[in-house]
Amino acid sequence: MAVASEDSAAQLAALVDQVDEPQKATFQNMHQGYPRATLLRFLKAREWSVPKAHKMLVDCLNWRIQNHIDDILNKPIIPIDLYREIRDSQLVGLSGYSKEGLPVFALGVGLSTFDKASVHYYVQSHIQINEYRDRVILPTATKKYGRYIGKCIKVLDMSGLKLSALSHIKLLTMMSTVDDLNYPEKTLTYYVVNAPYVFSACWKVVKPLLQERTKIKIQVLQGCGRDELLKIMDYDSLPYFCRSGSNNSYRVSAAGADNCYSLDHPFHQQLYSYVKQQASKQPSLPKQGSLHVDVPGADIEGTKIVKTIESELNKIADCNKLARSLNDLHIDVA
């Protein structure tokens, strides 16, 4: 496989050398000095098929150009009160680093409400965090640890996940599609913690649909996952919801200094300051309003998975309605 991957990377590199200058410029912004590692990510995402990886990469470069992704870190979400509301409803943050130096991102899947702004703001925020990770966080980690670090770890907290999540599927699919097609192979492992019945039911039917390379990245841990996560990171890097022996509530811990979701956390303070600083270098002041980014169409696998999740959630909802109806009937008869 090593020889085959080297040969594939060389072939893809030769093809990338033939792209137009604007595409070369955005590719340079993508790889941050590590073009081969970037080529390998796209090859791996397309099962080492050079033609498919080439198409995927060119599509990505065109998407970046057409949507001005290279400039997205010059576009602060203003006013800051709106950005704070986005942070309170789109729960994501950097909690620390693994023992190997990989950034650890926490995501509050179950308790994110996505109800404080338009879809465009949430997509813009998501891409800004991706770009800040790739252009600032990962290069800084690479320099600190003296070796290339190009991936992160994600801890997905399912606390509070309810059937109402069905209303978020479209937005989550949009962000997932952006990642799959334009930021492939940037996550080493997804750790799922605090998983309720709703997740377990969906996972049972979704898991067989996943490609093997995706399936091996996802680990569903018992409870808050503290003991397992401490094998790969220090206690200080654990997301706050993993530090207890039982499920934590975001609302209970929201005011804590360790809440990496909050705008007051150092990660978000640094990110927002960086974007504002980049904006100040532009000839004109940033305008208020969201940045509209075109989201590429989902691939067949992704579409199938989303439809399966929707179907499973609807089944659970129907069962719950039936249970309530039977319960009401029992009460009436009694």
TrEMBL record:
**Could you tell me which SUPFAM superfamilies the record lists for this protein?**
CRAL/TRIO domain (SSF52087), CRAL/TRIO N-terminal domain (SSF46938)
Per the UniProt entry, what species is this protein from, by scientific name? Canna indica (Indian-shot)
Query: SMART domains, from UniProt?
Result: CRAL_TRIO_N, SEC14
InterPro entries this protein is in? CRAL-TRIO_dom, CRAL-TRIO_dom_sf, CRAL/TRIO_N_dom, CRAL/TRIO_N_dom_sf
Where are the bilayer-spanning segments? Answer: none
A Pfam family per the record? CRAL_TRIO_N
Superkingdom in the source lineage: Eukaryota
Name the PROSITE patterns for this protein.
CRAL_TRIO
The protein's name is Phosphatidylinositol/phosphatidylcholine transfer protein SFH11-like
User: Which ranges carry the CRAL-TRIO domain?
Assistant: 79-239
